[in-house]
Amino acid sequence: MKKLENKVCIVTGATSGMGKAIAELFSLEGAKLVLSGRNEEQGSLLVEELPNSVFVPGDVTESAYNETLVATAIKEFGKLDIICLNAGILGLGNVVDLSDSLWNNTIATNLTSIYFLSKFAIPHLQKQNGTILINASIAAYKSFPNHPAYCASKAGAVALMKQMAVEYAPNIRVNAICPGPVDTPLLWDSAEAFDNPKEAVASAEGATLLKRLGQPIDIAKLALFLVSDDSSWITGTAMTIDGGILNT
């Protein structure tokens, strides 16, 4: 039997990078999916590839949109078992130069959206002994130049995960993953904070103990473990997946 057979899952940030890899692997493992993202073209292509999936375009920083995601899961599939939160932006710029609007949008996208979707999903997840998985970052623990909003939002995401794990046990498991340098468009965008982006990415790759960048499928495999019954005694945990870079 597939690990997510008959499970209904919302995946945000599903149209690219880690979120897309997660959606694809969850689908292979039998999940029915409500996919979230801003890019309607990419979302439409994704649902053509994945059976038992629907795409709902929109902005995760809006409370009503998150309510719609949950309502869609219930309408289309009759229940909700898992939410997997991957939407994120960088908000590059130091504290002095960063605009108020970019700070607010980064916090809204990376942190407040988790609160919004969890708020509407939790009553349904409680009925299913469901799971919440938050895609955070090693930026919750390790700081990088010109990433103040990103680091703050990811640290907040880990703290929120731990609080919800306490609040909603034993009916809901809540965990986070903290990726290091993964070869996605977001990594290359992040490198723009440095004088030589290519050198910055190469340096990050060399700094990992395993001497390679992570791939989106690496993250997807950990996500699958944490939302499946294979991790049924794990909650309130932030799992680092970084090729060992925090140990260097």
Automatic annotation (TrEMBL):
Molecular-function GO terms, alphabetical: oxidoreductase activity
CDD domains, sorted: SDR_c (cd05233)
Protein name: SDR family oxidoreductase
Family: Belongs to the short-chain dehydrogenases/reductases (SDR) family.
Assigned keywords, A-Z: Oxidoreductase
